[in-house]
Automatic annotation (TrEMBL):
One of its GO terms (molecular function) is oxidoreductase activity. This is NAD(P)/FAD-dependent oxidoreductase. It holds the Pfam family Pyr_redox_2. Residues 3-147 form the FAD/NAD(P)-binding domain. Gene3D superfamilies: 3.50.50.100. It comes from Sulfurimonas crateris. It comes from the Bacteria.
Length: 489
């Protein structure tokens, strides 16, 4: 019997674990280690953050789902990996620390034959003074990164609405809280849901809404922007985004590195090196991401963390990490199999793998401060990669260790994104976009780097209905209900 251990139960880890359990059957063991007791459909947290959904509608208990799937579930956080075992045993293992009520702090070594690192990111609030610290979110801003954060965000948002109804004008500041953030899309969705809800509450005229982001232009989204077909024309995401912001009367600050947050005020540095301040009554700022801090040790107990992980804490895979400057970047730099180059039985997927470099062109201020988005690895690509990695490992277990690995390069992969701009059966809107490939290939597609026949976008009510349907479909799939394997990632 082989044992596959999956670290993390988010979109990528959950996808990998559930498919592996199905393909391997009871002859082999799948273990999931995650510190959380609930699964969270994170894309819908933006609706929890404005009171349009409850926490219970975007989460469910993992234990019964994993019991049904025959997965050995350990509610714990991974602490370290010993990929060579120890001097007394060659068996590799991961050290975990339980978070389960009643077993908090209990440590266990879990041996494995294959390991998938799908821990997701550490929400690095501590990278920006005042945004938070090592323990999490600070006291001056809100977040929609977790369901609990989103509940808190809505509580603060409702207080603002009440103040506006009493005649007190409010300033809203939404965006990214550091020069090296990713996930601009989540902030993009949240700012327009805020705007939509204020309109529904009849207080839009009492609100000043502003976007602040590390993007060098609106519509970069961490993928260097895109050109897409819309209503029969090729439109840049910059024009698409600027039109939407102007139409909704939302002002913007771009190319900004937020370097300090105080009560009611942020301080930032712009790409031209100038410094600025912006006041707010309500602010949601996405934090930068980092690896979760896993350590790795050799057989003799020596620290080999630098061998297994990149400096940002994400696991090294089969990417080209020596591409150098932007002019040398190529689509072929991006990983295909997500296998660790040193230990062939370890893989990483979702946000946990170390990308070779950003997708957007890197920029910095004259002061040397890097201000540009880091590459997104969430949503649809995260699920596709998780499934491909599970497929590779299952083949090696069932067919032999020389079975070919499955590939899922983001440079060969298309993705669909439905970004909500307001929730409502008859007045909701969302921007529905496809992008192919996610990582531009300027050799294959000179000019834009992407195939414009498969890169398109529209905004409207139909997009909102699609977003709402996808919410229910993906939760159905994650709960492993009838036909779940038929629903694409």
């Amino acid at each position: 019997m082989a044992r596959l251990v999956v670290l993390g139960g988010g979109v990528s880890g959950h996808t990998a674990a559930t498919f592996a359990a199905k393909w391997l059957g009871s002859a082999h063991e799948v273990v999931v280690v995650t510190p959380n007791s609930k699964w969270n459909w994170i894309p819908s947290n933006i609706w929890v953050g404005v009171g349009e959904m409850s926490k219970e509608e975007v989460t469910f208990d993992l234990a019964p789902v994993y019991a049904k799937a025959g997965i050995n579930y350990k509610q714990a956080k991974a602490v370290s990996i010993n990929p060579e075992g120890v001097e007394s045993s060659d068996k590799p293992f991961v050290t975990i620390e339980y978070t389960l009520a009643g077993r908090e702090g209990e440590v266990e070594n879990v041996e494995y034959d294959y390991l998938i690192n799908a821990t997701g990111p550490k929400l690095n609030f501590g990278a920006t003074e005042g945004l938070g610290d090592a323990n999490g979110l600070g006291e001056f801003t809100v977040s929609v990164c977790t369901a609990d954060h989103a509940v808190h965000a809505n509580e603060e948002f409702q207080k603002c609405i009440q103040k506006m109804k009493q005649g007190e004008r409010q300033k809203f500041l939404i965006g990214t809280g550091h020069g090296m953030c990713t996930c601009q899309g989540a902030a993009f969705e949240y700012i327009f849901n805020i705007e939509h809800e204020l309109k529904k509450a009849g207080v839009r005229d009492m609100a000043d809404i502003k976007w602040i982001s590390n993007e060098s232009f609106l519509g970069d989204f961490g993928v260097g922007g895109l050109h897409m077909k819309s209503m029969g024309f090729a439109v840049s995401s910059k024009i698409f985004a600027e039109s939407l912001f102007t139409e909704r009367d939302v002002d913007w600050i771009i190319g900004a590195h937020v370097n300090k947050v105080e009560k009611g005020k942020v301080h930032y540095e712009l790409l031209d090196g100038s410094m600025g301040e912006e006041e707010f009554d309500f602010s949601m700022l996405i934090p930068p991401f980092a690896g979760v801090g896993l350590k790795a040790y050799g057989k003799d107990g020596s620290d080999i963390t630098d061998t297994v992980f990149a400096p940002n804490g994400f696991m090294k895979v089969d990417a080209n990490y020596s591409a150098g400057s932007y002019e040398n970047w190529s689509a072929s730099d991006w990983p295909k199999t997500y296998q660790n180059p040193t230990y062939s039985n370890m893989f990483a997927c979702g946000i946990a793998f170390a990308p070779p470099h950003p997708i957007s062109k890197p920029m910095s201020s004259p002061n040397g401060t890097p201000i540009s988005p880091t590459p997104p690895r969430t949503g649809m690509p995260s699920g596709i990669i998780g499934k491909a990695v599970a497929h590779s490992i299952c083949d090696r277990i069932l067919k032999g260790e020389n079975a070919p690995l499955h590939e899922a390069s983001m440079a060969h992969m298309g993705a669909a994104c439905v970004a909500s701009a307001g929730k409502g059966i008859f007045d909701g809107t969302a921007a529905a976009m496809t992008i192919y490939p996610v990582v531009p290939d300027f050799e294959k597609y000179p000019g834009t780097g992407r195939d414009t026949d498969y890169t398109f976008g529209e905004i409207g009510l139909a997009g909102h209905w699609i977003k709402h349907i996808l919410h229910h479909l993906f939760i159905w799939k994650a709960k492993l209900k009838a036909g779940w394997t038929m629903i694409p990632e």
